[in-house]
Fold these 4 entries.
Entry 1:
Amino acid sequence: MFKEIKKDEYFQEAGRIPREIIFLVNGIMRICYYNNKGEEITKYFMEENRFMADINSYNQEIPSTEYIQAVTDCSYFVLSRNAMRELSMTIIEWDNIISKITAKGLADKVNKISPMMSEDAKERYLSFLEKFPNLANRIPLSYLASYLGITQSSLSRIRRSIR
């Protein structure tokens, strides 16, 4: 099934059990959560041509702790749990394909997050620009600052210093 979601709307909310996997055709979504101080933290961004799901919550059928929000207007294909079961029974290698997609997604996540732990704010921003050149101008600075673990004013200073 093909669906659309408007900018700022939530595809998934914390506390709910995810029942779908999506393939993002157009747009950017972000995965975020609230820390123990009630601050919204952006974990990462997903852009076009990617599968998305809170895979742990989806597989275990437990409530998610994360939100998935449209950063831009988005369009996507929805794969329900029933559709996934049917594909698994119809396509011989389907489960193997899904395992490979999941493993790659988890590796990509680790490769995005791990280097950021040892870099200072300016290095994190420059790394982000290098790895995701198409995202920087498509997402609000507040989300980018949250993702980088800095304040919006710090991000503005960094951006001014490298122009």
Entry 2:
Amino acid sequence: MTEAKDWLTGGSRRDAAETRIRAAARSLLVDRGVDSFTADAVARRAGCSRATLYRITGGSKALLDAVVADASVSVLGQIEARTTGLDGAARVVEAVLAAVDAIRADAALREWLAHRRTAGADDYFGSSTAMAQTAQLLGGVEADGPLAGPWLVRVVLSLVTWPLADANDERDLVERFVLPAFRPEG
């Protein structure tokens, strides 16, 4: 059974509510930080009840995961745009540097990573097969074994959370130490 279009929203009322709640959650995370990210605070910002928030999104933990997932889609788009037409080792270098740049540019991801222990980021990265699969897909490293993707994620996160002073130094680091892992032996 398909949901009828709502006369007021022109689409699904539930989808409109979820979009509004996610936008409120993102703005709360950016404006007030992880420590202020509660179901009550998001519901107030979205203009809905806490019960509606839980019914639509599943609560603050699920909502924080959704905000991170939404931001990740944007990051993936930026990586894809920067790596179009590249393959092999050159693609890996650009994918890593594009991911670093995109994550640094996203205020919600910066906040989430800055408080990664309390925000659950360590658990997320430790248990997310999607993160490793994404790294493998974008880096084109499917054949390099099951640890290549998680290793690339760790490289990106180390550069994001512990940056070098200069972007050229970061590129040099990736080219000198990451690139050789993806060059054919011979």
Entry 3:
Amino acid sequence: MPDDTILQDLRTPEAIESGSMAIIDAEVPEPRPFAGNEWVVVRRMIHATADFELLDLVRFHPQAVAAALAALSQGGLVLTDTEMARAGLPLRRFDPLGCRVECLMNDPDVQRRAREQGSTRATVAVDVAAERFDNLRNAILLVGNAPTALLRILERCREGSIAPALVLGMPVGFVNAAESKALLVEQSPAPYITITGRKGGSALAAAALNALAQIALDTRAAGSGKE
């Protein structure tokens, strides 16, 4: 390490996180492209990736934040397309809200039907979830990996056979990732948060939802008079 390197004396997780957020705020001075709770979400996504290009790529449906907070505060289901995303949504945030986090990618019925249909597990998981969880009413659907899952969600939303509260559509990659997210912005009847282009991933989608869950928790604590 060069002799002129200056390290910040931040040792606790809380201090490191607070210091990171302060750096992001300082490097993105006002007026920012996002304000209020949208900025809280985007800042958390930047914190997860150190990628300031997200400032130009994130897109919010006008009702996205309000719809997400309503679903979270009512204990809505969260459905993810990867176990990685589910692992990134800690129980300490979602249990107090009464929210159940599910991923059906390894479900035996999903695996069997995917083989029989010659389809992807991600596609079939959307259909199985709709059958099991009341047509996904008031659910938050988090897609961080599979464009096929996002395309199936859009198809079923347009049919009116599912009615999610929010689609967090952030598949990453080169085959239909950018295209599926463009269709989400153009066609989704449900509120959404997405990232244009090829970037995305489970960590980013989980970061966005964690930010929303923390807002919901803070709002509940403020309403009950808790610090």
Entry 4:
Amino acid sequence: MKTTTSSDATADAPVTKTAKKGKLRENIEAIVIAILLAMFIRTFVVQAFKIPSGSMQDTLLIGDYILVNKFLYGVKAPFTDYVVIPVKEPQRGDVVVFRYPEDPSKDFIKRVVAVGGDTVEIRHKQVYVNGEREENPHAIYVDPRVIPQRVQPRDFFGPVTVPEGKLFTMGDNRDESNDSRFWGFVDVSAVRGKAFLIYWSWDSEDFGVRWSRLADRIE
């Protein structure tokens, strides 16, 4: 029979400590990798946003949580607007998230109505791009009044030509949207990405989930 000595017990102890250290290191590495991967996805691929206002009704409702494709318009250098790998530029009809021109710390979401080189005009609420009436089945009007241009540019605007590298954007809720009619063009470089999916929707008035909106594509 083998007798266990005190020296045998001491010799086994470092092995146990090393195993614990190895396990702890593995866990830390896994957490770090997960954080880096999440940061990479958020910076370059997809980012989540919440809709705080009704300017995009009925396409987007207050309380909708959306996903935005950040890769679609090109890969930018971190913390800058410099496009390292260009992919494509925003097109008419895209619903985009961008930094608000008058306060870049805020993100706005609107629909692209016109791009660089296009001429935009609004007459009696109706939008015309390059002389042709805009076809946007998502646009709604909630105010029957028609406001003269001398009062504000909501219902009468332009014509103006969009400069290259700029976008003219409007909310789908045309009567209740603070958009390019009031504060001008959006720099293409300020666009964060294209909205493509509603992944959650909370109705604070009825205190419930809008189940029918979950996984809806944004068009």
